[in-house]
Design a protein that fits this description.
single chain, alpha/beta, eight-stranded mixed sheet, five-stranded parallel sheet, 16 helices, disordered C terminus, binds flavin-adenine dinucleotide, binds ligand NA7
């Protein structure tokens, strides 16, 4: 790569978002585009998260692209959910099918992105010190990709293997090992369930027990995949006209209109069928908004845990309390592993970890447990994390941390004021739903917007701060009505010490988001392009400029 090179667009990230952005910009629009990913290959989430048990919790038939009918019809799957190797192989296949590999520089991180006001261009620097300039930057850097590795005292003194689930090393075999896992979110539960079948001993370190229901993993029946293929249009329309994009029935009925017996029956049916989002959104329409209704659902799950886990003291240690209001979880036999003699639940809320030693973990009750492997399933600095980890400056050299000092902002989840011609896929205040579907509508919006700007000789695309504030208000109002904001979790940025909790998602749903994006397009992008010149906008000053 030449230090002098200037391209039309740069795409950062080669997961679902970056791959589709590259397909739209390079192949469909014929732009000169360079993509970067610090991973050595495509896949994003599914390149990095190779831990045992890694599985989608969106069903297989929706956890894929819908932009190309032939691609959908040529894709097959074995089970109701997809394993990490299957998704990785699918994404590698998409990259090869559309001949996109040649556009990406893998094994290359972007450490800084600076907007050069005088030239209305972006200058990016890689981790090897190369620089490259471009007119547009599309950030598809992932919303669950900035690893959270808590600084537990003694962490670096451990002499066994200490790994984060999202950086799983290929050579780590758990057979016969004494394994500790810290964290029991979606990842920790998936990992612990798989590790219980491999490890000699497994210590599951639970800080905040979470509600979980069975995932409902089963083999596809004969002819079932072919039915999805035949019904491509119907499936696609069902996904994109729904709030969640998970392909589940989204019911409106209130829990309070049913007798206790009827509620139990409805919950039991969802439990049987499986799926965390199905349990929360296909049973009753008010579990995500009405705290008392939500607690009834929680009680149902607690009863199941008491039935499954034979030892009452163990059941107590892993029993969730309060609202069922984190990202709904599902598992493939998590509670069952606690009946195995080599699996121990360690409640680190009761007996916090004092330190990680050279050979294990010491808790506050003085107990020292010896381990060969310690696995951090401690999640991510979600949504805005990867942006804040870059040296990222917009107009007038303003840092992203300054722009987002109160709250990570966006207009429609894809742009932010002060960062011209700079786009985000799954940026802050985007939809909370099946994410490949959110990615599709956002990438299409960004790509169409770039095409429009080029066709109409618009130099600068950027939202006004007004538009951004209005969007923030919309997101905040929706969050107020939701139980999700009432507990601490990554969904509201409340999982990282020192990070200020904030509204990170638009909770109005996928179909509503799609309509809002379409309205912006139909109106000629009034909040993203205007004729009002921006003072100090460099060489672009005589052209259509930003509406600040
Ligand atoms: P990612 O796939 O995260 O890709 C981002 C890429 O950007 C990464 O490869 C990263 O290396 C690269 N990158 C970031 N910063 C830089 C930089 N500065 N320089 C160079 N490269 C950079 N969602 C669902 O809807 N359903 C599910 O079932 C589901 N299951 C999940 C399970 C796990 C274990 C995890 C972690 C996430 C899951 N998700 C799920 C969310 C998942 O992240 C999204 O579905 C989707 O894969 C996101 O795609 P993306 O392209 O936006 O980002
Ligand atoms: P999550 O859902 O953020 O879960 C992280 C887990 O790690 C959770 O149990 C945390 O406990 C625990 N944790 C985090 N920091 C610590 C420290 N310092 N000490 C002990 N325990 C800790 O991340 P996941 O990877 O499971 O899932 C993220 C999303 O990815 C998921 O929703 C899917 O969409 C895929 P806490 O709850 O904070 O007490």
């Amino acid at each position: 790569m030449s230090n002098q090179r200037t391209v039309d667009a740069i795409v950062i990230g080669a997961g679902f978002g970056g791959i589709y952005a590259m397909q739209k910009l390079a192949n469909e629009q014929g732009l000169d585009v360079v993509g970067f990913d610090r991973a050595d290959g495509p896949g994003g989430t599914w390149y990095w998260n190779r831990y045992p048990g890694a599985l989608s919790d969106s069903e297989s038939y929706v956890y894929q692209y819908f932009f190309d009918k032939d691609l959908y019809e040529d894709t097959t799957w074995k089970n109701t959910y997809l394993t990490q190797p299957e998704i990785l192989s699918y994404l590698e296949g998409v990259v090869d099918r559309f001949d996109l590999r040649k556009h990406f520089r893998f094994g290359t991180g972007i450490v800084s992105s600076h907007y050069i006001d005088a030239d209305n261009e972006w200058e990016l620097t890689t981790d090897s010190g190369d620089t490259i300039r471009s007119t547009y930057v599309v950030n598809a850097v992932g919303l669950l990709a900035a690893v959270n590795l808590p600084d537990i005292p003694g962490r670096d003194s451990f002499e066994g293997r200490l790994v984060h689930t999202a950086r799983w090393p290929e050579d780590l075999d758990l057979a016969g090992k004494r394994v500790a896992v810290i964290g029991t979110g979606s990842t920790g539960q998936q990992f612990a369930t798989a590790a219980a079948a491999q490890a000699a001993e497994l210590g599951v370190h639970v800080r905040t027990p979470q509600y979980s229901v069975p995932v409902g993993l089963r083999a596809m029946r004969d002819g079932e995949v072919e039915e999805y293929h035949a019904d491509f249009e119907k499936t696609r329309d069902t996904v994109f006209s729904s709030a969640l994009g998970f392909g589940i029935d989204e019911v409106e009925r209130s829990l309070w209109d049913y007798t206790d017996e009827e509620r139990q029956e409805i919950f039991a049916k969802a439990w049987e069928q499986g799926g965390g989002f199905r349990f929360m959104f296909s049973t009753f329409g008010n579990l995500a908004s009405d705290e008392d209704a939500n607690l009834v659902a929680g009680e149902f799950i607690k009863d199941r845990i008491r039935e499954i886990v034979k030892d009452p003291e163990t059941a107590r240690k892993i029993m969730p309390e309060g609202l069922h209001a984190r990202r709904p979880l599902c598992d493939n036999g998590f509670y069952e592993i606690f009946n195995l003699p080599h699996v121990e639940a360690v409640n680190i809320s009761e007996t916090p970890i004092d330190e990680i030693t050279r050979s294990g973990i010491r808790t506050s009750d003085g107990k020292h447990r010896e381990y060969d492997v310690i696995v951090f399933a401690t999640g991510f600095d979600a949504v805005d994390g990867n942006y804040r980890r870059m040296d990222l400056t917009g107009r007038n050299g303003v840092q992203i941390n300054e722009t987002w000092s109160t709250d990570p902002q966006s207009y429609l989840g894809v742009t932010t004021a002060g960062f011209p011609n700079w786009f985000m896929v799954l940026g802050p205040k985007g939809p909370f739903c099946n994410l490949p579907s959110a990615i599709e509508i956002q990438v299409e919006f960004i790509s169409d917007l770039i095409a429009h700007a080029r066709q109409t000789d618009v130099a600068t695309i950027e939202p006004s701060t007004d538009a951004e504030e209005r969007w923030s208000d919309v997101c905040r109002d929706l969050a107020k009505d939701s139980v999700f904001g009432k507990v601490d979790s990554w969904v509201f940025g409340a999982n990282i010490p020192g990070k200020k909790p904030s509204v990170l998602f638009y909770l109005g749903g996928l179909s509503a988001m799609k309509e809002i994006l379409a309205e912006e397009v139909e109106a000629g992008y009034p909040n993203l392009i205007s004729k009002v010149p921006h003072v100090g906008a460099g060489k672009s000053q005589d052209r259509t400029l930003v509406n600040q």
